[in-house]
Design a protein that fits this description.
about 70% helix, MetI-like fold, 2 domains, 2 strands, flat, mainly alpha
Length: about 300
């Protein structure tokens, strides 16, 4: 019998010889894995391994598992003041920083004359290291510093701003130095966020009769929420890590957690207690970041 089936049908029914070859190959690694692998290795080497080592050092002694180092950390007279002082800085400093940064960003958004010059001047503290900023403000607040010299010129008696006998003025000095040093970071983040907000929204709100403060409260600030969230998390974490400015201004008179970690590791030669303090700093930073992410998350984007 003559095969009358079309040639195309015979080709479809013919077994594909290359199928066996493809089936015998090992599965190809997706390109996304190769892109993620360097970051995964980087995080493992520089974060995961030090984290595990730090936790092990804080709870492992000569005889195995122990909490003696944690108890010694908590019993130290400087521990609770070192926890209290960064918390005070967060409560007092962050609202001031965000208010100043938002006001400065709004001025830049209004595009006054020499707006770019204003931007670069306000961003100068970003280029100054923490220790250098602390030394600059030490020259201001020390007993023979610029502030007391100005007061003497005005006929006012000088004041021991950084004395341990005056904890309030000592805190104010650290607060002012941190306000000058770190507000620039929040300012740059907010300016970047404002540049992503189309002016059409504000113009539409103005057409419907919204005043300046209504547009700021109901349009600009809600659209700035992602940028404010990033800035808030970064500044809170950095506030927990305050060290160089406080050390330059006050030494041990204004203890902070990073300073206590340095003291235990370098001066007291006890890496176990220093590791326990480092774990406390990391835990506080992670907990506050999670709280911010949950509280400030965009409810309108959630799938219902």
């Amino acid at each position: 019998m003559v095969d009358t089936a079309p040639a195309a049908q015979r080709r479809r029914n013919r077994p594909d010889a290359s199928a066996g070859v493809v089936a015998g190959r090992r599965p190809r690694v997706p390109p996304a894995i190769w892109l993620i692998a360097p970051s995964a290795v980087f995080l493992t080497v520089l974060f995961a391994w030090p984290l595990v080592s730090g936790i092990a050092a804080s709870v492992h002694g000569p005889n195995g598992f122990t909490l003696d180092y944690v108890r010694r950390m908590v019993a130290d007279p400087y521990f609770w003041p070192s926890v209290r002082n960064p918390l005070l800085l967060i409560v007092v400093l962050l609202p001031l920083q965000f208010a100043l940064a938002i006001a400065m960003a709004l001025l830049i958004r209004a595009k006054p004359r020499f707006a770019s010059v204003h931007f670069y001047i306000w961003a100068i503290p970003l280029a100054v290291s923490d220790l250098a900023a602390g030394l600059v403000w030490l020259a201001v607040f020390t007993d023979r510093g610029y502030l007391n010299s100005l007061l003497a010129h005005l006929g006012i008696e000088g004041f021991a701003w950084l004395s341990y006998q005056n904890p309030t003025t000592m805190f104010i000095a650290v607060l002012v130095a941190e306000l000058w040093r770190a507000t620039a970071l929040v300012f740059v983040i907010i300016v970047a966020g404002m540049q992503a907000i189309p002016r059409d929204y504000e113009e539409a709100a103005a057409i419907f009769g919204a005043g300046y403060w209504d547009r700021l409260r109901l349009v600009t600030l809600p659209l700035l929420k992602p940028s404010l969230q990033v800035a808030l998390i970064l500044r809170t974490i950095l506030a927990f890590q305050t060290f160089a400015v406080a050390q330059a201004l006050t030494g041990q008179n204004f203890p902070v957690m990073v300073g206590e970690t340095y003291r235990w590791y370098n001066d007291l030669r006890n890496p176990h207690v220093a590791s326990a303090l480092a774990i406390v700093i990391m835990a506080a930073s992670m907990i506050t970041a999670v709280i911010y992410l949950r509280v400030l998350r965009d409810q309108s984007r959630e799938v219902r």
